[in-house]
Amino acid sequence: MGLSIIVPCYDEQEALPFFMDAIDKVSSQSQLAGMDLEIIFVDDGSTDHTLELLKALARTDQRVRYTAFSRNFGKEAALYAGLQRARGDLVAVMDADLQDPPSLLPDMCRAVEREGVDVAAARRVDRKGEPWLRSFFARLFYRLINRMTDVEMMDGARDFRVMSRRYVDALLGLREYNRFSKGLFSWVGFKTKWFPYANTERVAGHTKWSFWSLFRYSIEGIVAFTTAPLVLSSCVGLLLCLLAFIAVVVIVVRKLLFGDPVDGWASLASLITFLGGCQMFFLGIIGQYMAKMYLEVKGRPVYIVAEESAEGTGRAVADGQDGSEDGSLFKVQDIGR
Ligand code: UDP
Ligand code: MG
After folding, report:
1. 266: CB partners within 8 A, 6+ apart
2. Atom 8 (ligand 1) nearest CA
3. pTM (2 decimals)?
4. What pLDDT, in 10s, does the model give residues 116-171?
């Protein structure tokens, strides 16, 4: 049995030594010891010394492979690159900051190996140490998205999971550019076993997610997995038409019965602003879908690799000394269109 662990890294020089320590501990003491282990680090355009660290690791540790992007492409792209490169029968995804406790790994592997499930996924049961505003919006997001979409997204589910080979192949079969992993994971299906655990804080370094970036990410998730907002816009449009029709009837009847002159510019002005606002809002929603389509249609690669370790060994390919056939530093990884 081979186990591949994929670790996306973005400015993780402080956390990496702790991470390797933890992996060493868990892989030597448990039933992971009998497994063929490979650790695939994906450096997502770090600006600190993460890449140097990874190269040094790959030189000394046969299990370590790395892939470095030409710039920051985001965690989703890093996950995708890792999945494409994983060769194990079991594939694990873990953060570098030890917020995904490696102590769960043996049990998760056992579940996939022996219990007939295809995914063992970790789920935080609390949000201790998180700002309350962030927790509030996170909960709201999960409630919203679960109501609007067919796929179920578990509140507190992290990307930390162990997957079977056929599950990974199914994931790789989804070739979209806008990759919202949380949704893709559940869209693919198969049986999932959940492993609850208490939230842990980052071991070192700091989170890359601001409130604003999380907000944008949640919009991305909604747009990627449901067209419910478009239906909503049609419904609201229809409702307003109906209201307008009733208003016209009321005004005409009132005029005929009581001869009331229509007066009041204030009510008119607020009505026009209200309707203008509605139109802009729904145009914006349609625009979101258009923008996503535009990005998909362009068919750009999900990421660009600047350099990576040679297959199977920890040696660098793009150092110009060996490996790359054309000696070129850049290799475009197409998503297979
Ligand atoms: N990460 C990444 N690219 C990014 C942002 C984050 O590869 O643009 C990695 C990061 O190095 C870490 C994981 O994704 O291993 C989770 O990031 P972080 O801890 O900042 O997120 P949080 O745990 O706060 O959700
Ligand atoms: Mg983290």
Report:
1. none
2. 74
3. 0.77
4. 899 999 888 877 777 788 888 888 888 888 888 888 888 878 889 999 999 999 99
